[in-house]
Amino acid sequence: QNPKTSATVKQLVADGNARELQKYFGSRMEFGTAGLRAAMGAGISHMNDLTIIQTTQGFCRYLEKNFSDLKKRGVVIGFDARAHLSSGGSSKRFARLAANTFISQGVPVYLFSDITPTPFVPYTVTHLKLCAGIMITASHNPKQDNGYKVYWENGAQIISPHDKGISQAIEENQEPWPQAWDDKRIDSSLLLHDPYATVNKEYFKDIQKQCFHRNINKETNLKFVHTSVHGVGHKFVQLAFKAFDLSPPFAVPEQKDPDPEFPTVKYPNPEEGKGVLTLSFALAEKDGAKIILANDPDADRLAVAEKQESGEWKVFSGNELGALLGWWIFTCWKNNNRDTRAIKDVYMLSSTVSSKILRAIALKEGFHFEETLTGFKWMGNRAKQLMDQGKAVLFAFEEAIGYMCCPAVLDKDGVSAAVITAEMASFLATRNLSLSQQLKAVYDEYGFHITKASYFICHDPKVIQQLFDNLRNFDGKNTYPKSCGRFKVSGIRDLTTGYDSSQPDQKAILPTSKSSQMITFTFANGGVATMRTSGTEPKIKYYSELCAPPGNSDVEQLKKELDELVNALEKHFFQPEKNNLQRKTE
């Protein structure tokens, strides 16, 4: 019943444009563990009023089946600032339609009255003990996209088999229920609650448990620049700084207010390198700020840059910031826990494609480190299991600039990560140390971990399948590569098929998934490289790392060795020319 999408379809029918209609209606968006993510527009392959209603009807029925007290506890719904004029879709409209669906079935809905960072949804699920949470966001995707992200009652993103159960329920509930389109009904409903004020108060109270140097924060002369890249983060990072008694960061004026057009950046993703930070660098130079904190548009990720003595800016990789935050959070814990026996219950987590630096710190300091599959859905669920066993999960991170620094949010959180990074930098400044110098000190103590990651773009699933099939049948059927250029392969783990050459029974320990491609190669020189497909973008990603034991300080030689390994990986395993792959561009 949306006049804009309806008119688009009628026009295509009138024009007899079968090709475009096929694009819109050829296949339904697939509901996976990351929920939905697609462009806004008409048809079942896009995010629009109808597909949101259908998805929520399915999700509602699935929750009714799983929770006898759903009508007592309810769900939370949050949204970012995305909007799409030509189709009339927006995150706020989708959130209201989703709320209407639940309320029509007698389910209480905690609908945020205004835009909110993604981490506030899992926080609310846990804090108010709700059955589930929905966040309408496409994070850092291009402006035409939107998404539907789902959290379970444990406060973590859903994992299998929930995705399959929800997907099936969507299939069974496609016809809109009576009143499905009439979202105005919710405004007078007693089942509608607004958690905005409560959550804003409680969240900032909870993250203060991670504030250990209030006096330093009050006194520091260090200046920070913050950008929310036209997303939701501005107000919340300002409030986080206030909660930690830090002077507010300078906000990049052109980017601080939400704008669904993202007019100043090509991609609204701080992970894409210096291009997104151009305006931040300019403001920092003007105001004499040393450190830049950049959130992605839904404020669950954080990028950090620091001005070096040379005048150059260094943008830390996700792995480098993970090393710094891991060191910092453990140091703070150690200083506040004099009982040495408590360390046996301390854990840190990272995903399998992230740097192994936490493993090195854990080995030396005596706490536990665990690796999970890629994505915070795995780390969040594992953290909750450990916490339920009385363990302390201090920190979890992934190389895609995602950090979980606070046990109150079982997902990546760019707001708490920003303010904790600011406190760490302020503390280091009292010792005349920069973040870069401290990073070197961490590597000196625990061993250098040099990483390099990138991706190729490929829009053809057949080519991607062929590329991975080729790696599994490299020297004849069912044989993986024995070398990559001059680099000898010493181990292979394939989490698509479940094969792991390092295990006695050759079966992988981590869960496997036939629907996504992921192979990890270990090399005789101590290098590790993983190739995997992305769940939300048309990319084949790779991650590589060279770990050296403490004492090996020839960093340039390690970097050179890793560069050569990556070049060999691209040339022999990706074969970009043969497979017509498009390289990442700055």
TrEMBL record:
Taxonomic superkingdom: Eukaryota
Key words, A-Z: Carbohydrate metabolism, Cytoplasm, Glucose metabolism, Isomerase, Magnesium, Metal-binding, Phosphoprotein
Alphabetized GO MF terms: magnesium ion binding; phosphopentomutase activity
One GO term of the biological process aspect: purine ribonucleoside salvage
Domain Alpha-D-phosphohexomutase alpha/beta/alpha: 29-175, 201-307, 319-446
Coiled coil: none
Localization, UniProt: Cytoplasm
Cellular component GO terms held in the UniProt record: cytoplasm; nucleus
UniProt-listed CDD domains: PGM2
Swiss-Prot/TrEMBL cofactor(s): Mg(2+)
Pfam families: PGM_PMM_I (PF02878), PGM_PMM_II (PF02879), PGM_PMM_III (PF02880)
Record-stated family: Belongs to the phosphohexose mutase family.
Name the record gives this protein: PGM2 protein
Originating organism: Smutsornis africanus
